[in-house]
Design a protein that fits this description.
Layout (H helix, E strand, L loop, with lengths): L4 H15 L1 H4 L7 E5 L1 H12 L3 H6 L11 E5 L13 H7 L19 E6 L8 H12 L4 E6 L29 H11 L6
Length: 195
């Protein structure tokens, strides 16, 4: 079972970074969580639960120090009923707590700003996942930037030669590679990164 342990591990990681902030020259007020694919589900769910006083306590995250300032989601799994995983048994291996199956439903007005990107042709995680999350962020008036690129395979990472897998020319996608500069601009706009 992935949850709730993964949520607590993420909280512990933030606590460790917070505790090391002086020696490691980290600003604990500018911790940004980044999640790709299934890791996007963890980060998206954490963004809802860790910022919700009731759920924070229920999932035992309230004993950890530190907090995140923003979230970046790359082709995230958001809703376990939205195309990935396909089998009920796979969902239950992740968690039997169905509240955690729908990351968008954990969001409240206290959630942190979010940058989300995905491709419309992602063959593994349907784009409806990111749309569900962004729709709820917008409904709650959470600062959000969203990019749905028209074409690209799942797992593009930086979408350039740096992260290209051997023999996979489709891993280089110039339009999608713009997600990182777009993210850095957005982080500066919300005063998380320096311009």
């Amino acid at each position: 079972m992935v949850y709730p342990t993964a949520l607590q591990q993420l909280a512990k990681t933030i606590e460790w970074i917070t505790d090391q902030s002086d020696t490691q020259k980290v600003d604990p007020e500018r911790i940004v969580l980044v999640g790709f694919s299934a890791g996007g589900h963890l980060v998206a769910t954490f963004n809802g639960i860790a910022t919700n006083p009731e759920l924070n306590t229920q999932y035992q995250l309230d004993s950890y120090r530190g907090h995140h300032a923003a979230v970046i989601l790359s082709y995230p799994v958001i809703d376990l009923d939205a195309g990935f995983p396909k089998e009920e048994s796979e969902k239950e291996r992740i968690t039997t707590d169905q509240r955690l199956w729908h990351a968008q439903d954990t969001l409240t007005k206290w959630a942190k700003p979010c940058f989300v990107w995905q491709t419309a042709t992602d063959e593994l995680v349907p784009a409806i996942n990111s749309l569900l999350y962004v729709t709820e962020l917008n409904r709650l008036n959470i600062t959000t930037e969203y990019h749905l690129f028209s074409d690209g395979v799942h797992g593009l990472a930086l979408a350039n030669k740096v992260t290209q897998r051997p023999g996979k020319p489709q891993d280089v996608n110039e339009p999608v590679a713009q997600w990182l500069p777009l993210t850095l601009t957005w982080l500066a706009e919300i005063d998380i990164a320096h311009r």
